[in-house]
Structure to design on (186 residues):
């Protein structure tokens, strides 16, 4: 039986992590968005803190792997029920999250996605969502907080780095060539 393949896509906000995961989903990977876990817990808590401040508080109180613990439980459940064999996790912010998955589920291949802050800020505005940050200085401050969680360390440890500042088709080709996406259909 072939071992599970786990790809972790890391990088700053609006770099293209979710888009890259979507390319792999079309090739048969199951996508798990790590950001779903803090958003869900934040909503259930009814905390008055912003999501970013809530995440910081949870990391400080419960450890940098606190949200990944539930993600690992969900992955184990899917693996036991043979729901999926190949996974993409997008959006880890801390090394401890990656380490937890690696030690409990299996080895992870880390791919970093990056774009400069002005490009990412423009994407943030273009999303036109209620969570978009309308001020560039606040967007950069959010980056710095996320970097303090360990995003930069995760990116530095990645086996590959994709700069996502070109057209979408070129980005997709880069993602698929680096990941060897045909493995998903083996």
């Amino acid at each position: 039986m072939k071992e599970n393949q786990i790809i972790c896509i890391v990088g700053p906000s609006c770099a293209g992590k979710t888009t890259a995961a979507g390319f792999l989903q079309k090739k048969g990977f199951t996508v798990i968005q790590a950001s779903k876990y803090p958003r869900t817990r934040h909503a259930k808590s009814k905390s008055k803190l912003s999501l970013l401040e809530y995440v910081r508080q949870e990391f400080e109180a419960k450890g940098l792997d606190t949200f990944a613990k539930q993600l690992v439980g969900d992955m184990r459940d899917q693996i036991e029920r043979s729901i999926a064999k190949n996974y993409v996790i997008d959006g880890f912010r801390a090394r401890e999250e990656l380490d937890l998955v690696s030690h409990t589920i299996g080895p992870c291949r880390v791919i970093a996605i990056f774009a400069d802050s002005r490009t990412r800020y423009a994407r943030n505005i273009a999303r036109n969502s209620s969570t978009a940050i309308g001020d560039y200085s606040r967007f950069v401050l959010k980056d710095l907080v996320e970097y303090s969680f360990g995003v930069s360390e995760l990116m530095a440890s990645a086996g590959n780095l994709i700069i996502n500042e070109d057209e979408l088709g070129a980005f997709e080709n880069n993602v698929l060539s680096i990941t060897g996406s045909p493995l998903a259909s083996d």
Observations:
- Residues 182-186 have pLDDT under 50 and may be disordered.
- The chain has nine helices and five strands.
- The first strand starts at residue 5 and ends at 10.
